[in-house]
Amino acid sequence: MQFHHIAIEVNDLETSIAFYQEFIGLSEEGRLVFNEEEIVFLVSHDFRLELISGGHQNVSQGVHICFEVDTVDLVIKRFDQKEISAIEGPYKLKNGWETVFYKGPDNEVIEFLQMEKKADN
Predict the structure, then answer these.
(1) Which residue would you say has higher pLDDT here, 116 or 75?
(2) Residue 83 to residues 24, 68, 74, 96: CA-CA distances in angstroms?
(3) Which fold has domain 1-53?
(4) CATH fold of 64-121, please?
(5) pLDDT tens digits, residue range 46-97?
(6) Where are the domains of the chain?
(7) Closest CA relative to residue 71, chosen from 46, 92, 94
(8) Could you tell me the pTM of the whole model?
(9) What is the mean pLDDT of the chain?
């Protein structure tokens, strides 16, 4: 068994696609309609995100997605350029990891995690 994808129910499919393409670097893999819902798969390497819109779902996020990044500082800078503030962090954990949390277009929580310590300059 292997992991295939994670799904998020969204209100505005095109807004969510643009967000995940711009801030996460995902590419559109394909679209389909199933049971009155429009579904779009976005991918990067072996990660796949399914965005679902238009059905009878109630958009409510109870989980968060975490992306490992090379540096949290660059993530923060990218969001700051769009005047989007972190909802939590940045934090430096006792094990040396650094993390920061943002909200996506439908209030889904997105964590960015830097596991490796930055080299001191």
Answers:
(1) 75
(2) 17, 22, 14, 27
(3) 2,3-Dihydroxybiphenyl 1,2-Dioxygenase; domain 1 (3.10.180)
(4) 2,3-Dihydroxybiphenyl 1,2-Dioxygenase; domain 1 (3.10.180)
(5) 899 999 887 665 655 567 889 999 999 999 999 999 999 999 999 999 889 9
(6) 1-53, 64-121
(7) 92
(8) 0.79
(9) 88
